[in-house]
C-alpha cells in the first residue's frame, strides 16, 4: 500500500536569494506543487510538478532508509549514520 500527498498553494513564487547554498542541487521558479508518496517504512518518493509546464515533473528523487535501528542506536561515521 502506498500513501500519496500533494502539496501546493494559490500564491505565486518568491524570488530566490542570490547566494546559492552548497547543498542546493536544483532551483526552479516554476509554479507547481510537490507530490510526496510513502511506499513503505523505508522508501519515500518526491516529485516536483510544474503547472507552468503543463504538469511536467521537473525534479524527482527518492529517500531511502538503509538502516533499521532505533535512532539512539545509530553511530556517526564518515559515510553518515550507521
UniProtKB/TrEMBL annotation:
Pfam families: Metallophos_C. Residues 8-59 form the Purple acid phosphatase C-terminal domain. Gene3D superfamilies: 3.60.21.10. InterPro entries: Metallo-depent_PP-like (IPR029052), PAPs_C (IPR025733). This is Acid phosphatase type 7. It comes from Amphibalanus amphitrite. The gene is ACP7_0.
Amino acid at each position: 500500500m502506498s500513501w500519496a500527498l500533494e502539496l501546493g498553494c494559490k500564491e505565486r513564487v518568491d524570488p530566490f536569494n542570490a547566494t546559492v547554498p552548497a547543498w542546493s542541487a536544483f532551483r526552479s521558479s516554476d509554479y507547481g506543487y510537490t507530490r510526496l508518496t510513502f511506499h513503505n517504512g523505508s522508501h519515500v518518493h518526491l516529485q516536483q510538478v510544474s503547472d507552468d509546464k503543463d504538469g511536467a515533473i521537473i525534479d524527482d528523487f527518492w529517500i531511502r532508509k538503509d538502516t533499521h535501528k532505533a535512532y539512539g542506536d545509530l553511530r556517526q561515521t564518515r559515510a553518515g549514520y550507521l
